[in-house]
């Protein structure tokens, strides 16, 4: 009965279309992205960072009260399906714990099992720290019905579930070290002793395990603090519980100084992707994070090529959308910089500032379609006026528009004619023709 009431509490599903590029969720903080391919879509189950205030969480620390799920068919347009589980609708969770940390989700026999770590109300039975629970749904979007109790025998955070080719499921988690155990077919109980995966680095925190298999190699991937902050690393083995041999880094420590990183790796439409996080919308506080995607590839021997984080991210951007060139692929060495549009509300996004003749920003993979687009619009501000060019391919490519921006201290949308026929997917370059300061919010074609 409890379960039915919880499922019916109506965790409202709000299908909202979001944006592309990194970070790819742009209206809330998100972290610890667990990506899964279900059917023809990628679903991402992240943590949901919020800012603690007096009486709501611990100020200056992680604060999370619920989980959303997001989906996309093209990695460019993301739909937020709303809250799927909150600390208030799980019978065993302390409803003021604000500790709904990194989750995972997996499908088995048409059911979706959502695993999440948090603190229990009953500390006598479940201990004071973190334990891991499950909520089950018939669809990835939910509604999810939480189990009445957490999984017995598990103490820790960052659950990850892997189902091997023979159908055996495994649960991994972390608590300083990384642990693993078999799961029963019901996906709700352990079916073996708990193994400590002791071959992984012995010094420095390891957490956030994520296991996958490719061509018979089992990849145990995990964030690890060897120096100051977390670096994504991996080890490989020939079976899901190891032994594993340490190989190296997947992604180096973040240049932003974000202390945590937490990731997942999936193959979608013949391309592998790394989902991870940084602190894009919160440069001064690294417990308010944002999730990102970049492509990942393998060497012939199965080792992973190191992923360099990008702002451009993945996927193709329709030329008719507002193309955020501040999520650039490449910038000229001088004369161009990126800043928030509004430092008091960073979710408004960024702007690209040009102040040197010849400075440029390149944005790759813009889809112009098959119908000639005749006009380019640019949302721009230039107190002394300015002239910008748009080119395709690269900085030396053909000029497809030249836009004269009148003197204007306020943001304005300026139109100009597209001078050349362009079809299909192209890179675009926005280039300053003079030294006047010119701020660009977005570019769009119609
Ligand atoms: O999001 C809270 C914690 O930070 C996660 O559980 C860790 O993996 C780290 O990302």
TrEMBL record:
<dbReference type="InterPro" id="IPR023296">
    <property type="entry name" value="Glyco_hydro_beta-prop_sf"/>
</dbReference>
<dbReference type="GO" id="GO:0030246">
    <property type="term" value="F:carbohydrate binding"/>
</dbReference>
<comment type="similarity">
    <text>Belongs to the glycosyl hydrolase 43 family.</text>
</comment>
<keyword id="KW-0858">Xylan degradation</keyword>
<protein>
    <submittedName>
        <fullName>Carbohydrate binding protein with CBM6 domain</fullName>
    </submittedName>
</protein>
<feature type="signal peptide">
    <location>
        <begin position="1"/>
        <end position="20"/>
    </location>
</feature>
<dbReference type="Pfam" id="PF04616">
    <property type="entry name" value="Glyco_hydro_43"/>
</dbReference>
<feature type="active site" description="Proton acceptor">
    <location>
        <position position="49"/>
    </location>
</feature>
<feature type="active site" description="Proton donor">
    <location>
        <position position="207"/>
    </location>
</feature>
<feature type="domain" description="CBM6">
    <location>
        <begin position="323"/>
        <end position="446"/>
    </location>
</feature>
<dbReference type="InterPro" id="IPR006584">
    <property type="entry name" value="Cellulose-bd_IV"/>
</dbReference>
<keyword id="KW-0378">Hydrolase</keyword>
<dbReference type="InterPro" id="IPR006710">
    <property type="entry name" value="Glyco_hydro_43"/>
</dbReference>
<dbReference type="Pfam" id="PF03422">
    <property type="entry name" value="CBM_6"/>
</dbReference>
<dbReference type="InterPro" id="IPR052176">
    <property type="entry name" value="Glycosyl_Hydrlase_43_Enz"/>
</dbReference>
<keyword id="KW-0326">Glycosidase</keyword>
<dbReference type="InterPro" id="IPR008979">
    <property type="entry name" value="Galactose-bd-like_sf"/>
</dbReference>
<keyword id="KW-0119">Carbohydrate metabolism</keyword>
<feature type="site" description="Important for catalytic activity, responsible for pKa modulation of the active site Glu and correct orientation of both the proton donor and substrate">
    <location>
        <position position="158"/>
    </location>
</feature>
<dbReference type="InterPro" id="IPR005084">
    <property type="entry name" value="CBM6"/>
</dbReference>
<dbReference type="GO" id="GO:0004553">
    <property type="term" value="F:hydrolase activity, hydrolyzing O-glycosyl compounds"/>
</dbReference>
<keyword id="KW-0624">Polysaccharide degradation</keyword>
<keyword id="KW-0732">Signal</keyword>
<dbReference type="GO" id="GO:0045493">
    <property type="term" value="P:xylan catabolic process"/>
</dbReference>
């Amino acid at each position: 009965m409890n379960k039915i009431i919880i499922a019916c509490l109506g965790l409202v599903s709000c299908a909202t279309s979001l944006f592309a590029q990194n970070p790819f969720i742009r209206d809330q903080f998100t972290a610890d992205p667990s990506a899964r391919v279900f059917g023809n879509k990628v679903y991402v189950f992240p943590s949901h960072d919020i800012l603690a205030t007096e009486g709501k969480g611990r100020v200056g620390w992680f604060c999370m009260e619920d989980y959303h799920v997001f989906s996309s068919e093209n990695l460019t347009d993301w739909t937020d399906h709303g809250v799927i589980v909150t600390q208030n609708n799980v019978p065993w969770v302390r409803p003021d714990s604000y500790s709904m940390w990194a989750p995972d989700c997996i499908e088995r026999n048409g059911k979706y099992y959502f695993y999440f770590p948090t603190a229990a109300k009953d500390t006598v039975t479940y201990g004071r720290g973190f334990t891991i629970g499950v909520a089950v749904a018939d669809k990835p979007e939910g509604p999810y019905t939480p189990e009445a109790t957490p999984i017995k025998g598990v103490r820790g955070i960052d659950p990850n579930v892997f189902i091997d080719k023979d159908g055996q499921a495994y649960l991994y988690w972390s608590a300083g070290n990384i642990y693993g155990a078999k799961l029963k077919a019901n996906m709700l109980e352990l079916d073996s002793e708990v193994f400590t995966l002791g071959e992984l680095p012995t010094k420095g925190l390891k957490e956030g395990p994520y296991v996958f298999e490719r061509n018979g190699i089992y990849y145990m991937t995990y964030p690890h603090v060897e120096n100051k902050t977390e670096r994504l690393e991996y080890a490989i083995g020939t079976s899901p519980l190891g032994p594993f041999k340490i190989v190296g880094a997947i992604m180096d420590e973040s240049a932003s100084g974000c202390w945590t990183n937490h990731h997942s790796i999936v193959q979608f439409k013949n391309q592998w992707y790394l989902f991870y996080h940084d602190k894009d919308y919160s440069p001064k506080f690294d417990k308010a994070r944002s999730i990102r995607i970049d492509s990942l590839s393998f060497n012939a021997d199965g080792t992973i090529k190191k992923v360099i984080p990008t702002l451009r991210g993945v996927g193709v951007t329709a030329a008719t959308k507002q193309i955020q060139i501040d999520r650039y692929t490449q910038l000229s060495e001088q004369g161009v910089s990126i800043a928030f549009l509004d430092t008091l509300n960073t979710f408004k996004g960024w702007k690209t500032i040009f102040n040197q003749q010849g400075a440029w920003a390149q944005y790759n993979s813009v889809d112009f379609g098959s119908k000639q687009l005749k006009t380019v619009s640019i949302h721009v501000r230039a107190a002394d006026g300015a002239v910008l060019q748009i080119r395709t391919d690269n900085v030396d490519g053909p000029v497809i528009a030249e836009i004269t921006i009148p003197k204007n201290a306020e943001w304005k949308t300026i139109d100009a004619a597209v001078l050349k026929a362009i079809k299909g997917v192209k890179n675009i370059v926005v280039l300053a023709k003079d030294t006047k300061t010119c701020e660009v919010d977005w570019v769009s074609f119609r």
